Each structure stands twice: as C-alpha cells, then as structure tokens.
C-alpha cells in the first residue's frame, strides 16, 4: 500500500533536467533566471511589480520594512495563522494585535478587525487560509476607510482568485510561499507582489544588504538590509512549476470536491467539522492548498495524536495547521500577556484540527482511502 503524503510537490524529469542545466550554467545565485521568474510571476498577476525572496517569511519582513512598519505601530492579524506572521510583526518592532477567525473559513474575523483598530494601527495582515480568499471587498473597504496598509499573507493562495482575478493581482501587497507544501515550489522561496513599483524597488534594496549601486561603479548602503535573494537554481524550478500551477490547482479543486462527496452526508452524525465549501466559479476561487477538518475529540476515546498515529499506520500522512498563535510561549509571555479564552474559534481549531492529504500527486482513489480510514477510526473510537 503506497504512503499518501499529506502534502508534497511534483518534480518531473524535465524540471530536474532544467535545474541541472542551471546548475551547470556557471551562474547559481540571483541572475537571469530570477529576472525571468519575476517577469513570469508578474505576468500571471496582471503585470504587477513582483520580487522574489528566500521565503514568504522574508518577503513579509521586507514588506513591513518597505511600509515603514516598526516600533509604536500595531498590526492586526488572526490568532489562527502560521507563526511567521506574528514573528515578523514582532521582529520589525511592531505590536501584534490578534483577533479571532471564522470557524469554517478559518479566515480573519473582519468585524473584530474593525473593533481592534486604534490610532496606532498601521496595517492588517489577513491570511487566505488554506487558499480561500478573505472577503476582499470588505477587507479593502475597512483598510481604505482607516487608511491602513494591507499585507496579504497569500502563502497558501498562489492560484487562488477573487472575482476571477488572481490573489495578488489587485490590492496592496501580497506575499506568497513556494515551500514544498505549497501549490508550487522553488524548494524554499517566496514572492511579494506590490501595487507600487517604487515600493518593489525599495524591497529589492532591502532584500540584498540594503545595497544601492552608484554611478562610479561603487556601492553604498542606504538601509540596514537583509540577505533574502533567491538563487537562479530555485527560480528555474519556479518557472516550470508556475507553468503547471493552474492545472495543479484544478486537480486540487477536484480532490476537495471528492472529499465533500465522500464526507458531507455523514459529517454531522460523526461530529466531524468540514471546511467552508467554495468553488472555482464563484467570487472566491479556492486553490485548496489544504483540506482541514475538525475532529470530534469530545466524542472520541483517543487523542488527536493517537488519531494521527493510527492514520500513519494506515500509510496516510496527516498534518496540523495551526497552533493558536496567541497561546505560544512568545505571546503568552509577561510582555504580551495573552491567555486561553480570548479567541474561541482559533483555540478550538488549534485543539481539534487535522489536515488531510491534498496535493497534485493525490488521486481520487487516495481520497477514498483516506475517507474510509478516517470514518472507520472515528466510528471505532466513538465514546
Ligand atoms: C499561512 C502561512 N504564512 C506564511 C508561511 C511562511 O512561508 P515560508 O515558509 O515560505 O516562509 C507559511 C508557511 O507554512 C504559512 O503556512
């Protein structure tokens, strides 16, 4: 029985050969392939200014710097997102202001965002959870009304759309991840898409030591930059991956539809929480980076860890996304003072969520195997 990984990239022979040719080309670090990859990503996103980085985390840190976000500023984000968001807000010296998320879309609660705005608020960072776009009309109405920057955490959302436009093709700044678990990969890597070419140019300086080149051929540094430039080897892989993105997202959507077909009629009786159902045709084009469900732990005689181990024994990989960020040691600490009971949905998701296998290499038969094992385990462990 094959092992069904919960996430994973597709690297075919042609991609491996193209990477090999780049390795042998004599140019390894940022060069012509990075320029080509940035141009291709920009084209995919309606020609918007695009820069690539070593990760989405790096892209977000630089985006904050370019927006001038730092000490004294507040940045509103969801308690249900990946650690990198809170980490980067804190790293640039700003204060993370958490709000809760919706239980089924898992996206940031925009009512709570509005209530959390203070004179010190500088930006909103919404995550398009599992690739499902947030309500972009409402998000940008709030941001415009309060003159706030929006840095969209689109790490999981390359290939997602809103009213037919790719996420990143409109709005303020969007950051993407090309980690192997994402919809396409450059091994490690990320991108930021900007609404303003001057900000993209500043990001380019921030990502490479803060260096500006002078007319006499020497270099100057104008800001304390970082070292976040992507290699040509990664960019070459990214070019081929991007060419497959739409096909892979269409496959992901088919798999998600199959999960719903298998589970929808029995979810309620099992106590299983399914994610929000969203299709391609509507206003939200969901790229389905993840299919996350809530386990009925209160009705089960085994823990989530025992469930994951039992699925592993069935040769099925299961993930957990994410831990509620306000309850991590960093944010519980004296200085930040967060505690249980603040964000009910984020905390419940954090306790009960599991991610089922969903990626371009999964088949419809794999989905059926996963669902059969899941349902059997839930029935066997019912209290
Ligand atoms: C929601 C979300 N945001 C940001 C990131 C950071 O991406 P990267 O690993 O490219 O820095 C991740 C990574 O898993 C993520 O899941």
Written description of the protein model:
There is one protein chain. With 383 residues, the chain is α/β, with parallel strands linked by helices. 45% of the residues are buried. The chain contains twelve helices and 14 strands. The protein has a seven-stranded mixed sheet, sandwiched between helices. Strands 7-6-12 form a three-stranded antiparallel sheet, with no helix packed on it. Strands 10-11 form a two-stranded antiparallel ribbon. It folds into two domains: 226 residues, Type I PLP-dependent aspartate aminotransferase-like (Major domain) (Aspartate Aminotransferase, domain 2); 136 residues, Aspartate Aminotransferase, domain 1, CATH 3.90.1150.10. Helix content is 39%, strand content 14%.
CATH fold-level topology of the largest domain: Aspartate Aminotransferase, domain 2
The largest sheet has its strands arranged as 1-9-8-5-4-2-3
| Shape annotation | globular
How many domains? The number is 2
> Helix-strand pattern, N to C?
HHEHEHEHEHEEEEEHEEHEEHHHEH
Rg over CA atoms: 21 Å
Question: How many H/I helical runs?
Answer: 12
Q: Mean of the pLDDT scores?
A: 97
User: Under the CATH scheme, which class of the largest domain?
Assistant: Alpha Beta
Structural class based on helices, strands and sheet pairing:
alpha/beta
Helical amount: 25-40%
What layout of secondary structure does this protein have?
Blueprint: H1 13-23, H2 32-44, E1 50-53, H3 56-66, E2 74-78, H4 83-91, E3 95-99, H5 110-116, E4 121-125, H6 136-145, E5 149-153, E6 161-162, E7 165-166, E8 173-177, E9 190-193, H7 197-207, E10 211-213, E11 219-221, H8 232-270, E12 284-285, E13 291-294, H9 304-313, H10 329-332, H11 344-352, E14 353-356, H12 364-380
Parallel strand pairs: 2-3, 2-4, 4-5, 5-8
Antiparallel strand pairs: 1-9, 6-7, 6-12, 8-9, 10-11, 13-14
Bound molecules: pyridoxal-5'-phosphate.
């Amino acid at each position: 029985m094959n092992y069904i990984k919960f996430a994973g990239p597709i690297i075919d022979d042609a991609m491996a050969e193209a990477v090999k040719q780049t390795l042998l080309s004599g140019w390894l670090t940022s060069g012509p392939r990075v320029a080509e990859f940035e141009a291709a990503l920009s084209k995919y996103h309606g020609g918007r200014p695009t820069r690539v980085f070593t990760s989405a985390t790096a892209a977000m840190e630089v985006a904050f710097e370019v927006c001038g976000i730092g000490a004294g500023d507040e940045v509103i984000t969801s308690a249900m997102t990946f650690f990198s968001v809170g980490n980067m807000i804190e790293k640039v010296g700003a204060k993370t202001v958490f709000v809760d998320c919706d239980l089924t879309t898992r996206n940031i609660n925009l009512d709570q965002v509005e209530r959390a705005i203070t004179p010190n608020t500088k930006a909103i960072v919404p995550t398009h959870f599992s690739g499902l776009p947030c309500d972009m009309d409402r998000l940008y109405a709030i941001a415009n009304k309060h003159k706030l920057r929006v840095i969209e955490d689109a790490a999981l959302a390359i290939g997602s759309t809103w009213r037919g436009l790719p996420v990143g093709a409109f709005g303020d700044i969007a950051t993407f991840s090309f980690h192997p678990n994402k919809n396409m990969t450059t091994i490690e890597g990320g991108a930021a898409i900007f609404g303003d070419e001057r900000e993209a140019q500043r990001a380019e300086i921030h990502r490479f030591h803060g260096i500006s080149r002078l007319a006499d051929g020497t270099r100057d540094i104008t800001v304390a930059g970082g070292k976040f430039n992507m290699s040509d080897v990664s960019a070459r892989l990214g070019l081929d991956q991007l060419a497959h993105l739409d096909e892979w997202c269409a496959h992901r959507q088919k798999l998600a539809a199959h999960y719903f077909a298998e589970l929808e009629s029995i979810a309620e009786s099992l106590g299983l929480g399914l994610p929000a159902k969203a299709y391609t045709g509507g206003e939200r084009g969901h790229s389905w980076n993840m299919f996350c469900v809530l386990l009925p732990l209160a009705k089960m005689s085994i823990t989530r860890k025992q469930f994951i181990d039992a699925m592993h024994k069935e040769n099925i990989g299961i993930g957990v996304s994410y831990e509620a960020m306000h309850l991590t040691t960093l944010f519980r600490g004296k200085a930040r003072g967060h505690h249980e009971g603040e964000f009910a949905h984020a905390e419940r998701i954090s306790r009960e969520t599991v991610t089922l296998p969903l990626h371009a290499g999964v088949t419809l038969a794999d989905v059926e195997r996963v669902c059969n094992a899941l349902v059997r385990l839930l029935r066997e462990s019912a209290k």
